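Ex. 9. Protein: Two-component system response regulator.
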Amino acid sequence: MVQKAKILLVDDRPENLLALEAILSALDQTLVRASSGEEALKALLTDDFAVILLDVQMPGMDGFETAAHIKRRERTRDIPIIFLTAINHGPHHTFRGYAAGAVDYISKPFDPWVLRAKVSVFVELYMKNCQLREQAALLRLQLEGGGGKAAAGGDKEPPGLLAELSARLAAVEEQAEALSKQLDDESADAAAVATAAHLERKLTGLRRALDALEPGTGSGPPSVTSQS
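Predicted structure tokens for Two-component system response regulator:
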């Protein structure tokens, strides 16, 4: 079972954090507060997050500097960042947000429904990736077990486990396909579409590896990597 996704909310004003929690509570995910860039970076050392909502104007380390630190770390560089700002200095200011690695740049006051919809897309992508990693780990164990039996001249792995793996993978494939169609219909952010496409490619590779384990394929088990 995939646990709830964590969403990091970064803002130096408690009332803004409270407002974000009220907007995103309907997603039924784990909301984590950070009142500064330093506090956000500390939270990112130990926890995995589906998306980060980051205020631009903060005392000390501002949003742009915080994002730069996040993108420099291998562990956190792929976490989507949505910038929130109460100021708008025109296209140059917006471009700076995207250049810092943000997937979106939203000016306050914003539409709560729009923000919640954007966040929900990245939460869904995160959950699908978690499921995919779980299936890959199970398949890797299957391949390792099959290799050991082959070397010992034993029988192939029982078909029940292959059937269970295939069914689980099919469920993830169906959900990923539905999410991709939803993104196409809504003309979603390019970053979200690219992430969904990357997820589908990984699913395709995992399906091929699983199919190769089926009896009668005539080919040995392919290698399964954990590259992202």
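Check your answer against this statement. The CA atoms of residues 202 and 227 lie 9 Å apart.
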